Amino acid sequence: MERKLFTSLQGENADKLNNSLSQQGFRRSQNVLYRPSCAECSACLSARIDVSRFIASKSQRRTARRNNQLQRRATSPWATEDQYELFRRYLDARHADGGMADMDVFEFAAMIEETPIRSRVIEYSDPVADDLIAVSLTDVLEDGLSMVYSFYAPDRPQYSLGTHMILDHIKIARNAKLPYVYLGYWVPGSQKMGYKANFSGLEVYIGGEWKQMADPREFAAETHPLSTDPIAEQVANISLPDRHPTRF
């Protein structure tokens, strides 16, 4: 049974709240911040890349060269028909049985556009084919970039577009002197999320702090009744920006 701890994200202090809670393992979905809090499982670990410690592997360098011709375009968070068409192709091919499989164009527009903080849509296009092939909805935090949701052309597996977008976000963060790229959640042993552990400099939020990941095998999915603190204790240990009236 999935359970989440969440709070609304709104008002003039939305940016401060998003920055503070992102540093404590929370993620944003439209105007809500959430963190998994399942009663008998704490397998989902928030993950980020320490840009200063990242060194591309041989495979990642090949991916970067393979996509060298792609053109990047950063825009305001505004949904387009081309984005939605690519999003549908991606879901149908990769996540046809997932929770987002039934999203229509209006729900997609809400996902992209309903953001009370500083967000960007970063598009990647192939100039030869004149085609949009990858998109990332990205939040700009005070200490990094948060890749809220990414999707890409499913018919180009040889290009490793998901990896390319992360590599490019590392480059953007490095140029902007931002220390981290937030990737969302990583689950030990999950094949779908295993790619995140392939990036050097990875950190995961566990036990109330960020820990460096030297070897993914050192982390095991905690799935017993005592693996998650009671909700009251979790809330008591969350640091909020000063004078923010948020209620969980």
TrEMBL record:
Alphabetized SUPFAM superfamilies for the sequence: Acyl-CoA N-acyltransferases (Nat) (SSF55729)
Taxonomic superkingdom: Bacteria
The name this protein goes by in its record: Arginine-tRNA-protein transferase
One of the record's GO molecular function terms: leucyl-tRNA--protein transferase activity
Cellular component annotations (GO), alphabetically ordered: cytoplasm
PANTHER family: ARGININE-TRNA-PROTEIN TRANSFERASE 1, ARGINYL-TRNA--PROTEIN TRANSFERASE 1
Pfam families in alphabetical order: ATE_C, ATE_N
Tagged with keyword Membrane: no
Location of the N-end rule aminoacyl transferase C-terminal domain: 83-205
GO process annotations (BP): ubiquitin-dependent protein catabolic process via the N-end rule pathway
NCBIfam families named in the record: PRK01305.1-3, PRK01305.1-4, PRK01305.2-3
The keyword Disulfide bond is assigned to this record: no
Keywords of this entry: Acyltransferase, Cytoplasm, Transferase
Residue ranges constituting the N-end aminoacyl transferase N-terminal domain according to the UniProt record: 2-62
